[in-house]
Amino acid sequence: MTFLKIAAATAIAIACLGAQADEAALRKNLAERIPQMPKIEEVNKSAMPGLFELTVSGGDIMYTDAEGNFLIQGNLIDTKARRNLTEERINKLSAVDFDSLPSKDAFTIVRGNGKRKIAVFEDPNCGYCKRFEKDLQKVDNVTISLYLYPILSADSTDKSRNIWCAKDKAKAWQDWMLRSQTPPQAAANCDAPALARNVEFGRKYRITGTPTLLFADGSRIPGAVPVEQVEAQLAKIK
Asked: What is the pTM of this model?
């Protein structure tokens, strides 16, 4: 029995060393052969035997063999379960813990009792955001954390700064988005580092368009979705 335990432990140790050697080899080979390739953050075995999952900087997923001789970009599909494993993995990697959102870089809009919570990333020059804001007026008993996310143009940053520096941020935002009333010019000494932090945060968590909605359960919905879809998602969260 003792011999069997020693043999089993030895086999596990050899397997671990082999896995480490494979990872070192594939990292080395890919770095040398594809210098422009994004930095490899993680290497994990995929659901497909012999295929390794690479998580690269920017949150993308790629696949390779044990030595990095081949590289695949695309979706890995589980045909039996009919699941897009790549999409599921990316969603997991980009999931946001709602309670850890940088609340100091947002302003809030409260309606009704404010018990339900939602965070929205929006660009003041986004036409879809303006349409969405009109629909969002129909959602009651909610606290909306609004993150200014100026990614469309330089003017987006200017408008966002004026809104962020306004005495009443929520009013300045809604005046612009709902009534096309230009926000007052920000004072020259008004600093708005929150805007840059929001953009950095969005890049880290793959917020690639506006509006993007984040919910308390960690789920997200991109785009100007109908208010019914927002209500349906809020209803799922207890």
From this structure: 0.73
